[in-house]
Write a structure and sequence with these properties.
The chain is mainly alpha-helical. The chain is built from 9 helices and no strands. It has one domain: AhpD-like (Up-down Bundle). About 70% of the residues lie in helices and about 0% in strands. The longest helix is centred in the C-terminal third of the chain and has 23 residues. GO terms for molecular function: peroxiredoxin activity. It comes from Gemmobacter megaterium. Keywords: Oxidoreductase, Peroxidase.
Length: about 150
Amino acid sequence: MSGRMNYYRAAPGAMKAMMDLEEATKKLSITAPIRELVKMRVSQINGCAYCLNLHAPEARAAGVSQQKLDVLPAWRESPVFDAKERAALAWSEALTRLETTNAPDADYQMLADAFDDRERVELTLIITTINAWNRFAVGFRSQHPIAQVAQP
């Protein structure tokens, strides 16, 4: 598969706005590990290899364990996620799959039990932002670099 276009070159003003939004999300009160788990889960749902490749090392650097990354697609069945992470992941899935979930009250209640009003807004902005990035990367077929594996 090859990329469709360089959207940074095609619309630098639009992409500057996206980059500014991304930088703003890093200054919110949501912790880096939760922010990165959300980005990974949303990117898994959206099938965005570019963002998964980008955010896996960032998640590890933020302190997310490899075990959590390994079981992230099955987070509901895994005991390694705490209540805040579960609430964030449930809300991420609900908003990413909005056409089928309609943001259920149960997921919102879990969110409200784990996060205050400001944090719920901030988490929703982070989810919205990674969904937007996924749409750019998947829609325009952004290609992530291929890691070179050392041969023995």
